[in-house]
Amino acid sequence: MRILGMDTATSSCSVALWWDETIVAARRDVMSRGQAEALAPMISDVLAEAKVTASDLDLLAVTVGPGAFTGLRIGLATARAMALAAHVPCLGLTTTEVIAHAVDASTWQQGTLLVALDSRRADIYVQTFQAGPKPISDARAMDPAILGGWLQDVPGPIYVVGDARELATAVLIEAGLETNVIEAPEVPDAAVVADLASRRWTPGDILQAPTPLYLRPPDAKLPKDGGRLRP
Known about the structure:
Layout: E1 2-7, E2 12-19, E3 22-30, H1 35-50, E4 59-63, H2 69-86, E5 90-93, H3 95-102, E6 112-118, E7 124-130, E8 134-135, E9 140-142, H4 147-150, E10 158-161, H5 165-174, E11 179-181, H6 190-200
Parallel strand pairs: 1-4, 4-5, 6-10, 10-11
Antiparallel strand pairs: 1-2, 2-3, 6-7, 7-8, 7-9
Helix pairs in contact: 1-2
């Protein structure tokens, strides 16, 4: 089975091809902007290195959020267009679960895993997991100031990952919660996207087109009167 994973949801751009339990080609670059220009060449390079075409794929997998609005639209639009053109199903995965599954299971066997992501605004995106990893909460946007109260009753210790982990850790320590930072990718990796998709999907499964997971309204708003000039 061949699965092409991609991620443009946060501060990186990555593409990876999973082929029968192995990542055979991958590209990844850190970037806060520019995914629209970087994604298509990465896909082309990965497919060329693996000597396959889009029509040879069994599944496409893409992150759906939470993350940056522009980045999410780029990844989802590309994945859905490829899926339609190549007649390949497309699976969406959240950024928080992808990061949780990238954590080495040996680093935490008890307690709570907190994935904390930078929203590039005043809040942060968070989700909690128990060993497995299995989600305890839904992903949500949260003011860091209330993070300690929200996690007051979760099983400890709390292990923090993600690119907002330093902020989250400082808040939790200030709240008196036992907190540890562990080594893990700070943002989603397409290699993990593809690998996780291989465990979520079975050939023949019917999938709905993935949609973005927006946890707050966009900052850009339509002008009054829809932009029409007043008489």
